[in-house]
Amino acid sequence: MKNGSKTLNIAMTAMMMCIIMVAILFIRVPIPFTQGYVHLGDAMIFLSVLILGVKYGAVAAALGGMLGDIVGGFPIWAPWTLCIKGIMAVILGLVIGAAYKKGMKGGKLLAVEIAGMVLAGAFMVAGYFVAEGIMYGNWVTAALGIPWNIGQFVVGMILALAIAYALCRTPARKYFTYNVSPREAETQR
Hints:
Elements: H1 6-26, E1 29-30, E2 37-38, H2 41-71, H3 78-101, H4 106-136, H5 139-144, H6 146-167, H7 182-188
Antiparallel strand pairs: 1-2
């Protein structure tokens, strides 16, 4: 978060952890032939990185995702989710952070945010493929989850960008570490 006190950073991180957990628990679609499910948590993970930055966003993503698994009745997945969702947030944060350091704004920054989300999502898909293969000892079953996990992060990208765009048009914009100002995007065209 921009210019946030340590207390505000901790409070916002805890809030995003809870939002991620609720997004995981609220709408769950079971994946056929596996024991997995898809959810809207990735949207909130992407949003948490945009708001909190890489460090606090990764903490919120890792712990919020893990709590979603534990509370949702899938504690066996908690260690995997802790690592996968945390690294997913780090990937997105590092990609966007590098673009910010280069001074990118507007449409170019939005393209980098999308690319970062795709890279983070690709890592998530690969991470859960490996986790399922190891846990179940069956790589065919693990492969059945790949298209579902791709759909999950694509929907997450769309929702996160839509929510971020809407919030950046309100006073909440001041809480974003990384944001694309609608005005900056329009003036870059």
